[in-house]
Amino acid sequence: MADNSNQNKSNENNPRNQQSSLFKRLTRLFSGPLVDYNQPAVTRTTARTVTKYKFTTATGKEFKKKEYYNPFSGLQSKVLLNRDKQLRYTDFDQMEYMPEIASALDVYADEITTSSELTSLVNVECHNREIKEIINTLLYTVLNIDSNLFGWARSMCKYGDYFLYLDVDDDIGITNVIPLPVREVERLEGKDPTNPNYVQYYWSGDSQPGVTFENWQLAHFRVLGNDKYVPYGTSVLEPSRRIWRQLTLLEDAMMAYRIVRSPERRVFYIDVGNIPAEDVEQYIEQVKTQMKRNQIVDGDTGRVDLRYNAMSIDEDYYIPVRAGNSSRIETLAGGSFTGDIEDVQYLRDKLFSALKVPKAYLAQSDAMEDKTTLAQKDIRFARTIQRLQRVVVAEVEKICIIHLFTLGYRNTDLTNFKLTLNNPSKIAELQELEHLRSRFEIAGAATDGYFSKRWVYKNIFKLDDDEIERMQFEQYTDSKHAASIESMGTAAGEAVTAAAAGGGGDDAGGLGDDAGGGDDLGDDLGGDLGGDTDAGAETPEDEGPLLAEPGSRNDNGYETVKLDGRRGGARLRSYLAGAGESVGSSSDRNLFKGWSGEMGPLSRGTVGESMQSEEILIRETNNDILKLISDLEKNDED
Length: 638
Hints:
Elements lengths: L1 H11 L8 H9 L44 H22 L3 H14 L9 E4 L3 H14 L2 H15 L1 E9 L3 E8 L4 E5 L9 E5 L7 E4 L3 E5 L18 H21 L3 E7 L5 H16 E5 L6 E5 L8 E5 L6 E5 L9 H14 L15 H36 L11 E4 L4 H21 L6 H7 L5 H51 L3 H11 L22 E3 L2 E3 L9 H10 L9 H4 L1 H11 L5 H29 L1
Parallel strand pairs: 8-11
Antiparallel strand pairs: 1-13, 2-3, 2-7, 4-5, 5-6, 8-12, 9-10, 14-15
């Protein structure tokens, strides 16, 4: 019983079950257009009355067509439409055998799905990071659009339609997509009189009964723009169908002419003498047999076999002549128009015009165009590609909406994202940037005493009042942010200047020490003048605050100070003197080099590399003794 209850519960949300709640909710969601009618409120500085047109009915049905226009009606129109669709698809399959058309389809698909190492194939713009990650996972992991989108776009351009079945799971959303044959799928519209937007699909295979799908179960890529085949799309090959037939016939005729008329022929003039006229034909055939056939005797049977001896690839001409004209053989030239293909080139040019693909894209030898003309054609072709990209993006967004709805997202989260494909033309991007640069230059020159900034916003940049107010507010915010950063930098600079000024006082004090009888200068002066060295070395004025922070005693023991806070000028002179640079006096620094090199710095709290290891050993030993004493005291207390 428990297994049956779990199975019933899973069937309630199974999207393959037409009675499940998820199936009904998705059908209700996609039974009409997905439009977010909640518009953000606009704060205006002045009161403004906005008048909106209101429909006389809630749905505005009087503005919608009940059905598409068709001179036929009923079953007959359906049969004719189906037959015409099958004929079109058959022509498209045959047209792909022409290399130019197959290459054109590849160019269309390549331009639609252009990408690079720096730009991904589909760009997702969404403020919600979680939704953005879900969509990226769906596109690049589940659908694998890096590999599949090229084939989808190519089939869509070829047939004008492309159908994908969406395999939806009630827990993890869309798990897979399955392509369906375009010949066997029908789009059903206008079948529900209460809802003109209700769409269904019917798949009628040859070896299986028909299956009906809801709008959310299939993704229908269709190239709209020509209402001749509505509700189906129009192929990019449709304008070239008639030209393709003519070109195919002309190429076949050209090949037949070259095969039949191009070879040379021989004209045999046979002297028939006084042979009666009724026997001339028989005589000519006898000559032809002798010249064209060889008599071969079969050794097994003894029969004579007349085998054909092909002197040329086609039959020659035999003309009988009477007395006075000797027998002779002449050569008849082949067709003289075998190299003229202007008519074929004319139809090929019309074919490329119908395909809208520049001839230079297909590496045609006769496509001699300068860079300016090719750039303009590239921009024009990029607009066609962008129109097809919008078709692909619309259906991919529908797939993403279904995936988000299945995962539990509702309301504005379903439409709070935007998908974009890359611009296929770099030349078009550069032209747009050049256009913007020209606008900026004109705007900068117009505000120099001629026009106000508001006039420039409206007439050069084509902004409305709301956008102008938003732009001014953003400019104020940017200026405020820049001012705050500048004030912080000024405050930091003042703090650095004050700190540098405080350090200068220390330097002055150090200089006073050096000038007022320090170790170095006092010794030099005392030695040179012949007085006592200690007389000028230690005076009450030299006593002051410590130049280096003393060591601190804590739980870890004694910590020495490794860095001296004083400047290195006097110490450097002392080191140089200790190395023997000043030997002209009888001071203690010159007489006792060890005292100047080691004892002097040690007395000032500076430890050299030679004594640092011993100092560290003393510190570690002191720490161990303190720790041992504290352990003994704890044991006594216990």
